[in-house]
Amino acid sequence: MNYTFFPDKTSDLMGYVLRTSMCNYLPFTGYERLTEGAGNAFDSVTGKRSIWLDGTELQLLVSFCELRNCNILVIPEDEDEWGDVYPNGTGNGLMGSVAERRTDIAFGAFYLWFKPYNFSTYTATISRSGVTVLVPKPKMLPFWRTPFLSFSWPLWIAVLVTLLAGIVATWIAGTVRYRLLLLSVATDHAEDDLLTEQITLSDAVLMMVGFFVAQSSSIRNDLWSCVFLFTSLLLAGFMVSNLYSGGLASIMTVPQYEKSIDSVKEFASTGMKWFGPTPYCLEEIWNATEPHLQQILKTYIDAGPEEMNLHAHIGDSGFIIEQAQHGNFAPSNFLDRESSTTLQPLKDYVYTQNCAALITNTNPLRSNLNEYILRIQQSGILYHLGIRTAIRYLPTDVMQNIDRSRVHQQNEGAVTLEIGHFLGAFFILGYGLLCAGLVFVGELWGTMIVRRLNESLRWKVTYITPY
Predict the structure, then answer these.
(1) CA torsion, points 213, 218, 219, 220, in degrees to nearest 10?
(2) CA-to-CA distance for 432 and 426, rounded, in angstroms?
(3) Which residues of 173-187 are buried (b: 16+ CB within 10 A; e: fewer)?
(4) Parallel, antiparallel, or unpaired: how do β-strands 51-54 and 30-33 relate?
(5) How many Å separate Cα 130 from the centre of its chain?
(6) Distance between CA atoms of 384 and 225, rounded to whole angstroms?
(7) Which residues contact 401 (CB under 8 A, 6 or more apart)?
(8) Which of 32, 77, 340, 452 could form a disulfide with 398 if both were Cys (CB 3.0 to 4.6 A apart)?
(9) For each of the chain's 467 residues, which pLDDT tens digit applies?
(10) Do 140 and 113 meet the contact criterion of CB atoms below 8 Å apart?
C-alpha cells in the first residue's frame, strides 16, 4: 500500500468560500450580474450564483477555484474602488476590505504599493504593466501661417538681420555717392540737378525687399564700392528667395502639424493638467527626485469617468492610462469613439510596475495560488485571456484609435493645393493694407496738426503790436 504522510489538503477544498472583492477595471478585472445559476461566482447580496467574473486576473482565479473545488463570493467595491488604508489598519475600498479582513483577497491590477503592505501582503506577480499618459494629438497648423513656416525662427531672425544690414549699407553707400557727386559738379544748381541720384531711406528699403523677392531694381555702378555692395546683395537675395521657394513648396504640399508631445519630459514642460482615477496611480513617483516627475505630480488631479470624459472632449488635458502586458489599455471607460480620435499615448512610460492581488497575511491558499500563477504565466494562457477579454468587453474602435494614433504623422503623403493654402498671402496683403491705411490716417492727422500750428503761430506774429 502507498501511504502519503504529507497529503495536500488543499487539493479539494470541498466548496470552501473565498471572499473576493474587486472592481470593474478591464481588461484586468470585470464582472456582470446574470440570472440565477448562470454565473461562475456567488453574489454577496443575494447569495446566488449569479455573477460572471471575467478579465485576465479573475479568470485566473476562477480556474484556480475550479481546480481546487472552492467557491468565490463576490463583494464589489465600485464606489470606493481601490480605496485607502489608514495608519490604524482601517480603510475603505479594495485595500480596506483586505486590511480589515472583510475579504480574503482583492483583485484590481494592484501595484506593489507599500501602504497596504503593513496590514496585508501580495500574491506572486500576475502581469506587468506600464503607466503612460494620453495627450492631445497635434493639430494641423492653420493655413494663414503657411508663408512663415518655410524658415525656422532663428533663420527668420538671420534673414531680418541681413535685410536691416543691407538697408543700412545701401542707404549709407547712396548718401556717400550723392555727396561725392555734389563735390564733383561745381554749379549753382548742382543739388537740384542731382536730386534724382539721391537714395532715401525708403528707396533703400524697397530696393532690399526687391532683392529678397527676386525683383529688379535700379543699381548705381559708377563706383566700384557700389558694384561690390550690390553684387553681394543680389547674391544674398538670390539665395534667400530660392531657399524660401524650396521650403514653401514642401510646406504647402506636406501637412504641417503642431509640435507633438512624445515624451514624459515634454509633457512635463507643457504644464498640462492630467487626470486619473486614484492618487495611488502616482505612488511609484511620489518620492521621485527628477524635476520632470516632480512637475507632473503637481498637475495630477483625481477625477471620475464623467469629468474625464468632459475634458477629453475639450481636448485641453492629459489622462493617465495603463498599458497591460499584452498591449491593451486601461482605463478606457471615459473614452468614446469621438474623443479617442483626438488623443495619443506618449512614446515612453512614466513608470512600469508588476500587477498582483492583495491577500491577507495568514491566508492558507497563498502559496498554492502563487504556484498556480507562475504556472499560468509560463504557459502563455494570460495572453489568450487578455485578448479574449479585450474582444468581449473593450470598445474595439476606441482601442484601434489609440493604437493607430501616431500613424498619420508618418504615412500621409502630399496633398492637393486648396484655396486655404493661400490664406497666408491674403493675410499679408490685408496686414499691409491695414498698416498702410493707419499710417495714411496718421500722416493726414499729423499734416493737419502741423498746418494748424503754423497758422496759429502766423496769426500771433501778425497781430503782435510793436512798441
Answers:
(1) -160
(2) 10
(3) bbeebbeebbeeeee
(4) antiparallel
(5) 18
(6) 81
(7) 337, 340, 341
(8) 340
(9) 567 777 777 888 889 999 999 998 888 999 999 998 899 999 998 999 999 999 899 999 999 999 999 999 999 988 888 888 998 888 999 999 999 999 999 999 899 888 888 899 999 999 988 999 999 998 877 777 777 777 778 888 888 888 888 888 888 877 777 777 777 665 555 555 566 667 778 878 878 877 777 776 676 666 777 777 777 777 777 787 777 777 777 777 777 788 889 999 999 999 999 998 878 788 889 888 999 999 999 999 988 888 888 998 888 899 998 888 887 888 777 888 888 888 999 999 999 999 999 999 999 999 999 999 999 988 888 888 888 888 887 777 888 888 888 775 545 556 666 666 666 667 777 777 788 788 888 878 888 888 888 777 777 666 555 54
(10) no
Closest CA to 29 of 76, 64, 93: 76
Q: Are 134 and 331 in contact (CB under 8 A)?
A: no
Question: 10 Å Cβ neighbour count for 142?
Answer: 12
3-state SS string for 273-312: CEEECCHHHHHHHCCCCCHHHHHHHHCEEECCHHHHHHHH
If one counts every other C-beta atom within 10 angstroms of the C-beta of residue 143, the result is 18
Q: Yes or no: say if 376 and 62 are a contact pair by the CB < 8 Å rule.
A: no
At 79, list the grid cell: 464606489
From CA 355, how far away is CA 287, in angstroms rounded?
A: 20
223 HSE (CA, 13 A, CB side): 15
**What is the DSSP secondary-structure string of 161-199?**
HHHHHHHHHHHHHHHHHHHHHHHH---TTHHHHTGGG--
Contact, 305 vs 333, CB < 8 A? yes
Q: Which DSSP state fits 147?
A: G
Question: How far is it, in rounded angstroms, from Cα 373 to Cα 364?
Answer: 15
Whose cell is 532715401? That residue is 200
CA 325 – CA 380 distance, rounded (Å): 12
CA–CA gap between residue 233 and residue 168 (Å, rounded): 12
Distance CA 460, CA 467 (A): 16
Where b means 16+ CB within 10 Å and e means fewer, 22-61 reads bbbbbbbbbbeeeeeeebbbbbeeeeebbbbbbbbbbbbb
* CA distance readout (Å), 90 to 84, 101, 229, 256: 9, 10, 85, 55
Q: How many residues does the chain have?
A: 467
